[in-house]
Design goal:
Blueprint: E1 6-8, H1 13-20, E2 25-28, H2 34-39, E3 48-51, E4 61-64, E5 67-71, H3 76-81, H4 83-88, H5 90-97, H6 102-107, H7 110-116, H8 124-129, E6 133-138, E7 145-150, E8 155-157, E9 160-161, E10 168-175, E11 181-188, E12 199-208, E13 211-220, E14 227-228, H9 230-236, E15 239-240, H10 243-256, H11 267-286
Length: 288
């Protein structure tokens, strides 16, 4: 791979996506993932290092019609403290509160967490259960082309996504949940706020008269990517959230995940934690 030779700090989206046409570009935002990865030798700088922090189109959190748009440069602290997020998307606040340290939250961005594509990425699980989509921009000819990809199809492997080299993540869009929406996030680790998660779980849906519908369940650190748990969702969809439904869902969740043994936990332990914590979370949802 080519040694780093150029530093570029665009001030507009046009400048950034035009430079990405070269393909040989490393993107820098908060640097909280990139810096340790390059220092450890896991990532090598490409020909150009492009600092995107001065592009106004990538910042901000706003209500746009029936969606909340979070700019790619929004930091974890900004998301956690924003009134719109607190009012409509409290599960994101839960996840932010378990995201690393204050210093990392102040620098780390949601765009960086998405592009890092860790199977244990803290923000990815709530985004999955909120039906988020990832905004992408490129310049295949002489004007910017934009599209939005469901985050459920965005990840292809550890550190890998469907984003092409000439595309830039500009933000994430989340439908504003309805009146009876409920959601929860759980992360387990040695020190949950500082360590990489051993497992993480997100649950969301519409709870009305004790019946859960539009169910979304997602797991982190139990597969090659963050995953939606389709079989667990099927068990819960349209059912009264009683003890029998909760136990059936917890069993389905344990049987659905395919974790590995690593330095943080064994596969067996992860499967048992998925069972136990899914059961606990759904019990909390039933009591909401």
């Amino acid at each position: 791979m080519t040694e780093l030779k150029h530093y570029f700090a665009p001030t507009s989206l046009d400048q950034a996506v035009e430079r990405l046409k070269d393909g040989d570009v490393t993107i820098l935002a908060g640097g909280t993932d990139l810096t340790p990865q390059t220092q450890a030798g896991r990532v090598k700088f490409k020909h150009t290092l492009m600092n995107i922090r001065h592009i106004p189109q990538l910042s901000g959190i706003a209500l746009e019609g029936a969606e909340i748009r979070i700019g790619a440069l929004a930091t974890i602290t900004e998301i956690m403290e924003h009134p719109l997020i607190k009012e409509h998307l409290p599960v994101l606040v839960e996840a932010c509160d378990h995201f690393a340290s204050d210093q990392i939250r102040n620098a780390g961005t949601i765009g960086g967490n998405i592009c890092n594509a860790s199977p244990a990425g803290d923000m990815l699980i709530p985004l999955l259960v909120l039906d988020a989509c990832v905004e992408l921009a490129s310049m295949p000819e002489n004007k910017i082309y934009r599209h939005c990809m469901p985050i459920s199809t965005f990840f292809t492997g550890p550190g890998k996504t469907r984003k092409s080299l000439c595309e830039l993540v500009t933000g994430v869009r989340i439908p504003v949940p309805g009146a009876d929406h409920v959601s929860r996030f759980y992360k387990h680790g040695t020190r949950p706020a500082l360590d990489i998660s051993t497992i993480s779980i997100g649950v969301a849906g519409t709870l009305k008269d004790g019946v859960l519908s539009r169910v979304r369940v997602a797991f982190g650190a139990v597969a090659a990517t963050p995953v939606r748990a389709s079989r667990t969702e099927e068990v819960l969809e349209g059912r009264h959230l009683d003890a029998a439904a909760i136990e059936a869902a917890a069993i389905a969740a344990r049987d659905e995940v395919t974790p590995i043994d690593d330095v943080r936990a064994t596969a067996w332990y992860r499967k048992e934690m998925i069972h136990n914590m899914t059961k606990r979370m759904l019990t909390h949802v039933a009591q909401a």
